Protein 1
Amino acid sequence: MSAGNPRSLDLRSHRVARAAYARVEARKADEQRKKYGALVHKLPGMILQNGLAQTTGFLLAKAQKEPHAYAVLEDLVDVLTRSGSSTIQGGATGLHQRVIAADLNETLLLTRRALEAAGWMKRYVQGVLRIDATGTAEGDDAA
Amino acid sequence: MQPRIFHLHALSALHCGVGQAADVVDLPIARARATHLPIVPGSSLRGVLRAQMEGDPQREPDVPALFGPREIGGAADAFAGALAVGDAHLLLLPVRSLAGIVCYATSPFILRRYRQDLIRAGQAAPPLPNEPREGQARVVPDSVNRQDGVLFLEDLDLPAQEDPALRAWAAWIGQAVHPDDADAQTDLVTRFALLPDNIMHYLAETATEIRTRIAIDPATGTVKRGALWYEENLPAESVLWGVQALSRSNRQGDDRDAGALAACLPDEELLQLGGKAGVGRGLVRLLRREVSA
């Protein structure tokens, strides 16, 4: 059963979870992990409130000066692709281009898939990185 | 058993939640398992209605017959309340619209279920309208939301076809929700739209109101550690429907039938439903008046 094979007979949620776990765990040693974690917490809310196109566009716009924004977008693309939810060519930029080129049905599907992926990333930021919504890591001083 | 349709009209954002969830929103609203469409659980409504009536000295004596005893000392004191309250289901979702500010959206799947409940409750109901084509909407001929033949909802631009047959449904719901207000009925009719089921489902998942909440640490005046969360609400102006059923009184010494007990229930009641009352959520109108066909 390959994690990237959408035809494998496992649950889609498990494929998404595996892909999200791997990406978030890989951020453990990242210097930007607190900012990354805080942004991942916001990601599902951003998609719901602003739509997927606005969200990916916003993260792309921030990416040049804020590497953690690019990291979030990259991980979202990776989770979507590895889980078999959606095949995205061209990385972070490719996802945004795909979203803004999508027709109605594809928009509905991509948005739901992105929400699912973002939801799992958020869980693992809480459970693996132990970073809360305000970007505070477990064990940090309350101040 | 005497079934009757009730409607809920949200006057403010409505948070009937399921507690903390492992989901994209920290505090999501309750949804039906099979359809994932928003619901207001019947238990929430029944409890709030009971509390409201208990707080009114004139209506308080009817409470045990309707809702059952507050405390049961033993088997001899136990009896079932005569009122059964079902879950309330989403009927109209207010959706942001470029023209006309807001559009009241529903879909064939929802109208079909609503109609079936109306018929079960002994009410006549308009015939089901034709389904919209894929990726298109149907609106009443004088829709205020249609601009250049298109309905602009959230991020969706849907070609919209005028359908005079929709007026009957819009007027029906308008009469149920605003029985004494002709202007409000007209307002609802002109903002009524029938969307394909897949688009309605998508909007019911992504066009609910997400509120970001924080808590301030009084010592520092900044956000408390970790205290930032997202709550989902049904937007104000949402309309839901459900079924209430009354039986005869099961209370010893009370021989009132369902018709007599129905007279104890209000035709219209202002309630606070669901959580987050302190921040203005959950003000709803409960409406029980039957619509004349």
Protein 2
Amino acid sequence: MSKGRGDKAAEIRRLMATEGPAIEENTKGFNRKRREAIEGLENYEELRDRAREIKEDAIDRLPELLDELRTAVEDNGGQMYIADDAADANRYIRDVAAEKEAERVVKSKSMTTEELEVNDALAEDGVDVVETDLGEWVVQLADETPSHLIAPAIHRSQESIAELFKEVFDPADPPETASELTSFAREKLGERIRDADVGMTGANFVTADSGTMAIVTSEGNARKCAVTPDTHVAVTGVEKVIPSTDELSPFLELLARSGTGQDLTAYVSLLTPPVDTPTVDFDDDETPLSERDSDREFHLVLIDNGRMAMREDDQLRETLYCIRCGQCSNSCANFQHVGGHAFGGETYSGGIGTGWEAGIEGLDTAAEFNDFCTGCSRCVNGCPTKIDIPWINTVVRDRVNRGKEPDGYDFLVEGLTPDEEPGGLDLDKRLFGNFETLAKLGSATAPVSNWVAKTGPARWALERVAGVDARRDLPEFQRETLVDWFENRVTAVSDPTREVVLYPDVYTNHVQVERGKAAVRTLEALGVSVRVPDVRSSGRAPLSQGMIATAEEHAHDVYGRLAEHLDAGRDVVVIEPSDLAMFDREYEKFLPEASVERLQEHSYEIMEYVYGLLENGADADTLRGGDGDGVAYHAHCQQRTLGLEAHTVAVLEDLGYDVLTSDVECCGMAGSFGYKDTYYELSMDVGDDLAEQFSTTEARDRTVVASGTSCLEQLDALLSRPSTHPVELIAP
Amino acid sequence: MATTTTNPTLSTFEESLADLGVDCTRTTAADFATTLADIVRDPAVGVPLPFDVEYPDSVTVDPTPAELERAETGITPASYGVANYGSVFLPATDDGAELVSLYPKLHVPVVRADDVLPALPEALDRFGDAAREEDLSAIVATGPSATADMGKLVLGAHGPEAVHVVMLDE
Ligand code: SF4
């Protein structure tokens, strides 16, 4: 077990060093442009809703649409084939090539053909298969696999491509600059396209009404592959079918924007094949184009390969709404540092890659990189079809857990852990997933527990057995929990304006008790009467380990306990953003709609609540003002997804603090992820960007403030100065 | 950029093209030949245009494949323009419009000013009818061919490296 973890850590280290820098620069560039492109689009949310609606409808009616499409394609003079799996599709494609006596097939980038490994299949018949997308060609020459959905060679620097061309072609005058490399590739590929017998492309969308395929590219190679040879084979997944051409526009408007931040990519080919374009022989200097014939053959190969089963799967179905824009990879901090060669499976990579691989390859493949998703939710608001990507990752994680056979230790573990999970679940997952139990034990036996945990043998055992990296400081449990402290005190508010329940999340209750006390003092200073009842943890910890049944049990308990307070008209104030996010997003999967709505409507993040109180006339002078003091603030991922960062900033500024916010996307910790020895170094590498930003001359003397527990822990590890929660800063 | 029109759709189209680094020249049917002669790089080839205009003598209309291969400029009709993106809809026709718009280094699409539509949905709407009824194929082209795969943005990857739109008042 520990050997496996060590190998993985070494592979991550290698990729961080070799491919990381190029991937980081490129993905962050895409991200920046995406944000700009979206800002300029007034109806962005409408387009997303519309895209989602069309996809839901199309997948729902897929069998019917496939029939309609077949009729359209055949009426146009083409052929359509639905392949059950890769072998079936490859057999069909090989037959087409054989019938044309094809010596060369030119291809335009298509992840679906990567899924089939069609190049290898054709090569067996002696067919020369050439990728014509420049990035894909580089990957092919280097005998690598694509590392990104839309930018296959994103992991390669210009220098390494120059090096590669030199090695492979040994040219007299080796190309070096980007434009020299491009014209070198253009020329080489141009010759091959002219000689090809068959052109193969993917398709981004296929419309059932007319049999039109939309192929989105910027280079023009798809156009060349589709119209230069007389035979065109388009290969794509069955899920790409949408009802009609009228429904194309939201997708076209969103696809490039979400992926690369362009309004539209240079070319959207809307091909209704066989096309009328005449076939050419470039040596012909006699026959004008209009007199040449256009005797063309067209095959549309749609592959199922597990997709129809995904359609029946209530949790994985959403994956089929994916339009492969790559946004969820670009916006993911872990992806930015290791890319798709670590954060990917046989074919697909990044956030949604797990869903794809689970559906088409199986759980084993998906399991290999599923852990890279920390559930931070940074990808959620950018997905053009509003797919709940973290949830799909959680579901897959749960299934992976459940697929495990119990091993020898388990009778022991079963006795110690109060969860709802199967026997084979990894010890590390079980440990992190049961953090609440651990915290209870830790508080009850503090300070001894903290002292023991720090000893060499304990750290060694924790690392060996449960994969907790010894370089990470462990949380220090407080003997007196927030709930205990609160029980023993007399509330200070007479004539309260409101009543709230301060939700005692596990960390605030057992570890960061001071921020809990600060929250109580702040609320009371603003005239609010506070209660801190003993409520279970939200279930975030088990959920992030994929322990869905356990998380669900927590959800029921938490709602049950809070319901009476909601009945009494009390608001729920939450300190830990990830717990609020849980109420706001994941509880929808566990609780009746009415319960969730009620909880959501009355739950607030602490600084959001303070903001609201101040807006409604509460007296800011009762809080600790800043008097121009400098603050460097890092909001929490999920808090940003919920759109709550601005409230904290506004409150701090209102109170006279001079706030600098981090524009770095992620602290890299995301809870248990950063504790695991496999991921510790990656977590610190991601965190480096934040450390750097908070160490500049402008930031270095500011008080470091962060909203999330894991961000605070990570900042403490990254910086030599301490960090604090905003409410501790302003509490009287 | 200075616009030559007060029609908001057309001025948006001109601005979008400018943002893409695409030149745009507006002309009348009568001036078409002289305008075009100034724009093209020789040798130039073109496909017959469905507008009431004459090509200049310098352009080889309906070329052979070998002439296409030698050409620096390709001239083709565009069915519509899309103002907010600066895109043109290029129909694929049996006289080789797709090839002529794709292979030479400079592509000159000719679009009637009246056919410039405000946004993509309107253009797709019209395209959809043609696709359903006549199996029409078209390319929505937005700026020149480009790639960032070699480390930096480079124009003219597989397709043209430059585009010059001619807007025609018929
Ligand atoms: S899941 Fe959404 S964001 Fe990710 S690639 Fe698919 S469409 Fe794009």
